[in-house]
Design goal:
The chain is α/β, with parallel strands linked by helices and 265 residues long. The protein folds into two domains: 115 residues, Winged helix-like DNA-binding domain superfamily/Winged helix DNA-binding domain (Arc Repressor Mutant, subunit A, Orthogonal Bundle); 128 residues. Helix content is 43%, strand content 15%. The strands form two sheets. It has a five-stranded mixed sheet, with helices on both faces.
């Protein structure tokens, strides 16, 4: 079998990157390396793990070369995150290239302008979780897609709420919340009430009414600090939840990701 032409491989790599930026809004080179230069599993081997996908050195170098070409061709625009990382989004040229391929994309120029460190960290962690899910074979709705209504819950959400990332495999649905900052009292009270609705829905013998026909709840996965986990457990138990109910519905990951500007009481 003859080898693929190097120029064709380069164009395929560029197309994958542009599609990734369309799905995520913005990404770092390292994120693109993990997503576009890592072999994806055909299907998940079990429940979702939240560990970030780690690109190889070769994958990072391929991503760097590809981003250099895309910048030279003005198909992407670059910005800088609060931690100094270079982040990339679609330029108008990149949007036109995707539209030729049948993808209704929009420019990311407003996405890479100034934003807070807290927002940046939240979106970064959400993207890492989504990339890890894609690589491990899950069907994933990214934070960007969810914000556009392009997910299971459409514009209305599920019982009026949207996740930060949604993972699906077969009929199971895992809802991911990245908790980077304290919720205000009103939102927090509404969130506790929403969790009560999900617990009730998960226990229905005739199937979920919130998710729709054929869909079942996996777990609510919280990427959070130990302080947030302790507070949520304490408040749910104060509402009458048993520890078994909390553990059956929820799982907590507090050591895999680094939070900044986070304060819980």
């Amino acid at each position: 079998m003859s080898k693929k032409d190097g120029r064709l491989i380069a164009r395929e790599n560029e197309a994958r990157v542009l599609r990734a930026l369309h799905r995520f809004g913005w990404l770092r080179t390292r994120d693109l390396a993990a997503l576009c230069w890592t072999r994806w599993a055909f299907r998940p081997s079990g429940p979702p793990g939240m560990e970030p996908a780690q690109p190889t050195g070769s994958a990072v170098r391929m991503a760097q070369r590809t981003m250099r070409r895309l910048r030279e061709d003005r198909l992407v625009i670059a910005g800088q995150g609060p931690d100094g990382s270079v982040i990339y989004a679609l330029s108008e040229g990149g949007v036109r290239a995707l539209k030729v391929a049948g993808v209704a994309a929009i420019s990311g120029k407003d996405l890479v302008r100034g934003f807070s460190s807290a927002y940046y960290r939240h979106r970064l962690i959400s993207s890492q979780v989504a990339i890890a899910g894609i690589v491990r074979g899950f069907r994933v709705s990214t934070e960007r897609e969810i914000s556009q209504g392009l997910w299971l819950g459409s514009e209305a959400g599920i019982a009026g709420k949207r996740p930060d990332v949604l993972l699906r495999s077969g009929t199971q649905v895992w809802w991911v919340e990245v908790e980077r900052s304290r919720k205000n009292a009103k939102d927090y009270k509404a969130f506790l009430a929403w969790m009560g609705k999900v617990l009730q829905d998960k226990g229905r013998r005739d199937g979920s009414r919130l998710l729709g026909p054929g869909q079942v709840w996996g777990r609510l996965i919280f990427i959070c600090t130990p302080a947030f986990e302790a507070k949520l457990r304490r408040d749910l138990e104060g509402l009458g939840w048993t520890q078994q109910q909390v553990d059956a519905l929820s799982s907590f990951q507090s050591a895999l990701y680094r939070f900044e500007d986070t304060l819980f009481s």
